[in-house]
Amino acid sequence: MEKFINHIQLGYLGLLPFLGCVGWPLMFGSNSVNLEFFTFYSIAILAFMAGNLWRAGEQSYSNAIKAVIVVIPVPFLSFLPVEWALAWLAVSFWLVLIFEKASPQWQSYHKDYQKMRFVLTSVVFVCHIFTIGMSIYPN
């Protein structure tokens, strides 16, 4: 467990910007800066999580593709309405978790880490749903 305690603490701390971006418009009204920050932070965290799947030299070709498949479309998200981009990001967090759970390393992870990954993905997904809703109905 000790080797995962920092991961667990940092994982939960990483939720604060997501929660802050959901709470900000509820307390102070919606604004485009908040929506942009949420989107960019989501992209950064998704890229980080997908990058953790990358195990150069230790994986099959199909697992290497899984590590990058969710982030390859990211540059094209700027051409989509923000709601669609956020929906792609929300689903991508689940894909990364599914890919991680399918990896052989998943079984060696501590149960607390596995639980944390599910909780974080769930909360991030719900934050995306709220943010999509707030962008559709800003007032």
From TrEMBL:
<protein>
    <recommendedName>
        <fullName>DUF3429 domain-containing protein</fullName>
    </recommendedName>
</protein>
<dbReference type="Pfam" id="PF11911">
    <property type="entry name" value="DUF3429"/>
</dbReference>
<dbReference type="InterPro" id="IPR021836">
    <property type="entry name" value="DUF3429"/>
</dbReference>
<keyword id="KW-0472">Membrane</keyword>
<feature type="transmembrane region" description="Helical">
    <location>
        <begin position="35"/>
        <end position="54"/>
    </location>
</feature>
<keyword id="KW-1133">Transmembrane helix</keyword>
<feature type="transmembrane region" description="Helical">
    <location>
        <begin position="116"/>
        <end position="137"/>
    </location>
</feature>
<feature type="transmembrane region" description="Helical">
    <location>
        <begin position="61"/>
        <end position="80"/>
    </location>
</feature>
<feature type="transmembrane region" description="Helical">
    <location>
        <begin position="12"/>
        <end position="29"/>
    </location>
</feature>
<keyword id="KW-0812">Transmembrane</keyword>
